[in-house]
Fold these 2 entries.
Entry 1:
Amino acid sequence: MTTILAISGSLRAQSTNTAVLRTAAELAESPLIVELYEGMSSLPHFNPDDDHDPLPPPVAALRNSIHIAHALLFSTPEYAGALPGSFKNLLDWTIGDDQPGSIYAKPVAWINASAHGASDAQTSLRLVLGFAHARIVDEACADIPITTNDIAPNGVISDRAVRERLAAVLARLR
Ligand SMILES: Cc1cc2nc3c(=O)[nH]c(=O)nc-3n(C[C@H](O)[C@H](O)[C@H](O)COP(=O)(O)O)c2cc1C
């Protein structure tokens, strides 16, 4: 089995970024599993004073999900020319993890689901992942613009071209 942990940078219930990752999870076929991380709203504000055992339980759960994943797949909106604060907070909690399976050297890629470019968020994500020493898999990163209209009532994207591009992302990251 190969496990990819999918992490959305948006907390919005109708998020296009989360829909993209949810669709990727639906597309994954054995022996590939895409697990959608859903704990971002539970993470405490990053505080280096708390970055030691015992970790706050939501942080321990995040790190455990990262440890057991073979790769990470992100999709995030841009807020005010940068990464959403909640998502940067999540990334900050990954930096100090010195345990086996941490984000250090882990293969990572991201999907840019914005229809408007959102290039500052992409640049910022690359910078932060560089500080984390993640292994960026450039050939798996893709611009796949999505609007709310593309999301079916069940929360996934049915457009065939989008699904094919998502499947290609998964294949490259795998
Ligand atoms: C407060 C706020 C600030 C935003 N700032 C930007 C921005 O700087 N650049 C951009 O391209 N989009 C910006 N947007 C638009 C969002 O990135 C866009 O709505 C995106 O689809 C939200 O992602 P989601 O659907 O996954 O929640 C902003 C939206 C909000 C609510």
Entry 2:
Amino acid sequence: MRSSDNAVSESLSIDKLKYPDLPSIESKYVGLLRSKHANKLFELIDGVGSPLHCVFPQQFSENVLQLTAVLHKHDLQGKIYFAKKANKARCFVKACKQLEIGIDVASKQELAITLSEAISGSDISVSGPEKSIEFVSLSVACGAQIAVDSIEELKKVLHLFTGQEQASVAPNPMPRILLRFKPGSDKKSRFGMAHNQLVEALELLRPYRDKVKLLGFSFHLSGYSIYSRVEAAVDLVKWVGVARDLGFSQCNQINLGGGLPVKYTSTDDWMSFKRTLMAQHFHQNHVFVHDFYPYGNELNAVSALDKLLSSSVHPGISLSQLLRRNDIKLALEPGRALLDQAGVSVFGIQGVKLIDQQYRYWVATVTGTSFSLSEQWFGSEFLPSPWLLKSSSYSDHQVSANAELFPTAIAGASCLEYDMVSWRKIPFPIKPAVDDCLIYPNTAGYQMDSNESTFHSLPQIPKVAMWFDENKVRWQLDAM
Ligand SMILES: Cc1ncc(COP(=O)(O)O)c(C=O)c1O
């Protein structure tokens, strides 16, 4: 996408067509927040600070119910574990407890937090690579199920019985494990075990059949391919058969991990945005190392899960039929999908600067840094357009009479040239100004806290949990 500066100057213009917009899907709760409770946002920014992450547990619950309905539609015994890593807010853990779903944890600290919310070990699934012996011990002690990532990790589980091999009574609680498979479509991954390693793992486990419960097999794939997931699921069903033949009679679960897609924009908007995208649309003609998230996915999580379970695996047999025939329970670990529309990030604007006199575009500096919108730190950018919320001093007559757009990139308030919240020059219909707010949409999944930092001695960014009814919004500071 990069081109020389001269080329940029020649082609740059303030013509609005040169700056494509990518309108974000507005959910019911964000609609209420913008239309009825905008003052509350300004109050919160004033009192709690900027940026501010607002999270919506009601939306989270609705997402859980929608995915659960797909499992019911397919008449499957299944369990959803929320992948906690996708957002640290406590309110989501509390919602999991209320909804009686499980939680997937990937660190000892996540496990400790989850237990502190009185979630029982039987509702916890432990993932993550090469877990420490302490993490494994705590997981076993609380009765959580552990997705074992490697032979070495399996030895850590077995090591818990050193000196007890001859014991006639099984340890209490018995370790409950799954073996994590490395699907053929993801051969280069550092996670999970390939076929030959699974054979070795089962041999290692065999003498411990009455001391370790092998519940089943798991995988997690990056990317959103339904086909690769179906293929890997069929492999797992075969592995369940192999394990049962070896005498692991309690083996009855496959865990497909996460990776259900989220739709941030309409597919049409996304396609036309991508078609017209040029380096000149970004401040300094910025080039990204990684591709962008597919913001305008055709499928959302519900339709993707339905498609996956309906996929044909043998002539006339769907994946869900295969699972039912083999009496296999399905576990899922969605993170991003359960957080779809479950939060926004609000940044107060502290200054706006015209960057290029001739080819007029601006940079608005917000209070906060791009660490609070994590995508930037993965060599990519969070592209759905933020909404501009004008401060109370704004009046309609300031709208440009000739419908001029105001292409504005968004910067963090640090001393780093690279601290850009949006490199993209977003074509605002009204000029952003000091004390306005920007509402970045749908940021609860991974954007809020995976890269948070106290750089420049800035405070940790607070989260505010919000609940809506028709006329009121109730809020609470969320303890992370
Ligand atoms: C093992 C495992 N499970 C679940 C997830 C959640 O994935 P997603 O947020 O795409 O649903 C991840 C994400 O990295 C993961 O590594």
